[in-house]
Amino acid sequence: CEQEYATAHKTGAAAIREVHANAIVGADGSQIGNPAYTLPGLGLWAPYPDMLDNVYTRSFSPADAIRCNWWGGYVAARKLGAQPLWEQVLTGGVNGSIYFCMSGTEGLFSADASLADFFMEKQLPGIREISERHGPLLKRCPVKKMGLGILFSMASQHALTLDARFATQNSSVDALLRYCEAEGISAYFYTEKQARQGVLEKDGVRMLFMPQVLCLADSTAKSLEAYVNAGGTLVADIQTGIRNERAALRPAGVLDQLFGIKQNPAGQPKKADLKATLWDAQVDWPLLTVDAGTVCADGTAFANCEGMPACIQKQTGKGKAVFLNFSISKAISDKLADQNTRAAMRRLFAESGVSSGIVPPPGVKLTWFSGDGFESLGCIVTADGDQTKPLALEKSRHVYDVRNGRYLGQTATVTPAECGGRNALLSFFDKPVPELKMDCVGQGRRGDAVEMKIGLNGDAARPLLVKAMQPGGAEEIGMRIAIPASKSAVSVKLPFALNAPQGEWRIEVTDLATGIKSSAAIKIEGSAQ
Q: Angle 51-60/171-183 helices, nearest 10 degrees?
């Protein structure tokens, strides 16, 4: 069914492109099905806002695909203003947004069909700010790959409908993703096929999680063994590889030797509390479902749970394999606010070289984006967070407050309250960014196309936004120009209409990577000769 669902979308997309070769085709408001089947080859996907679907779309969609969420037209969204869109954009969930309009009493329009007051006052200003400056920047900057991968197995998701004694569908990964979001660590999913093709090594994945991957092909197991031998860290939890790729039970787990364990494919679930020192932190995880049928072979148990091995590790080649005899996502699901749990997980990640470079205060969500020669950081302070608590960077860098267009200097500390408050966007460079150099003719006439050269200089490629402001101060929207990221000088032509207002126009150029604006004046006189 999942294959047919994916094929239906791709067949429909191909038919539409026969009529319109440049059409961007996909679906909206739909379940993804098997994302590894559905998303490749489609130019658009717009599910309802969901953290798991957002990670699926950024992992499996083409690099240039539009990833959107629905939002905005429901009564419950009115009091939130543009906050839903801020959160989707600054967390890397989307690179576009679809505003959903409902008619009647719930929707975007008043009874006289004018735009509703709540939209004009609370939502439109935020939408314009995001779509004008932050959206175009982050659309060009993918969520940073930080060395953390999660093995995606749709077969295992189906197998969990056969046996949910140890975990259930999606719950096996949900809390793990929420932990990553709270720590500012971005995760990407990888398929078994990608693991066999060497994509893990190509992407620099230093740590690969296998949450409830019950089903695994023999060929994938061999690739994962090679991955660990080459220096990777493989972390798996309960019942790993006890079924083949078609969900048939094996006599033993296909990766048991790699982890230094022996699993009983039948499984013996038993409730137990884990109170132990894990990665230098004391954790207290109650009522875990442990598999009493799993024992150590030549692996080392560094934590036990009421006499049963809970955490087992084995060095293999240059890397290591860590087996957790319980669902890691279940263990941390109710403990995300517990600082000991956060410290233990942070150390586990750091030992493999995976770190966000910042330890976020409680209630702060951070997302790193990769630009060409710079990095950007989306910062969301939740209702429970404190905007006045500073963020301590791993090292001192040249920092720009993009929302306010300010250079903060070379610093290792940034405070959200000073950089946009609840929704902040920062950019980091290895050295200060040179100011834009604007060279244009000081005057022109109606009907002229006035040329202007903009010098960027520097080592980073930054996108620009050019706006033409009339003598009265209002923007001439039709003359707005978006310039793709560039490191060198660019040239633009500003076409002035035959009926353009006469007088001094101000040409404003915004460096979207820093938020800093530069301007030049052009005096426009009577009609062209």
A: 80
